[in-house]
Amino acid sequence: MTIRQTNPPFMSGVPELLVLRLLARQEMYGYELVKAVRVVTSEAIRLGEGVIYPVLHGLERNGSLSARRKAVNGRTRVYYSVTPTGQQRLDRLAGEWERIKNGIQSVLESPQNA
């Protein structure tokens, strides 16, 4: 039986990267982001509301996201979108993850006696 860890240590920084990337594509509210992460990662990454909302609030506090309230079906939802500061942060994070991914990929693909 394989036990999957829901938030392994190497995931540090991943929620922020995913949130910024998804919001750079389109404005969304919190629970919509929870579902979107599952869909775009084919369920490989499952971030609950307890992860997503603190990330959203932190990114809003540091100026990476803007938020606006919108009434939908009698409820008020907070929709988030990426600011220019957030786009710069996304670019930096994406570059770092690309570098890390390439490094790991080179190890996985290298001959065993390297």
Strand order of the largest sheet: 1-3-2
Indicate the proportion of strand residues: 15-25%
Mean pLDDT: 89
Structural class: alpha+beta
Got a strand count?
A: 3
Named CATH architecture: Orthogonal Bundle
Q: Biggest sheet, in brief? A: 3 strands, antiparallel
Instruction: Work out the radius of gyration.
Output: 16 Å
Low-confidence stretches: none
Enter the CATH topology name. Answer: Arc Repressor Mutant, subunit A
Q: What gap, in angstroms, lies between the N and C termini?
A: 33 Å
The CATH homologous superfamily is named Winged helix-like DNA-binding domain superfamily/Winged helix DNA-binding domain
- CATH class, named Mainly Alpha
The domain count comes to: 1
Counting H and I runs of at least 4 residues, what is the number of helices?
4
Secondary-structure element sequence?
A: HEHHEEH
Shape: elongated
Roughly what percent helix?
Answer: 40-55%
Summarize the structure in words.
The protein is of the alpha+beta class and 114 residues long. The chain is built from 4 helices and 3 strands. A hairpin with a 2-residue loop joins strand 2 and strand 3. Helix 2 packs across helix 3. The radius of gyration is 16 Å and the shape is elongated.
Topology:
Blueprint lengths: L13 H12 L2 E2 H11 L8 H13 L3 E8 L2 E8 L1 H26 L5
Antiparallel strand pairs: 1-3, 2-3
Brief digest:
This protein has one domain (12-109): Winged helix-like DNA-binding domain superfamily/Winged helix DNA-binding domain (Arc Repressor Mutant, subunit A, Orthogonal Bundle). The chain contains four helices and three strands; from the N terminus they run H-E-H-H-E-E-H. It has helices spanning 14-25, 30-40, 49-61, 84-109, and strands spanning 28-29, 65-72, 75-82.
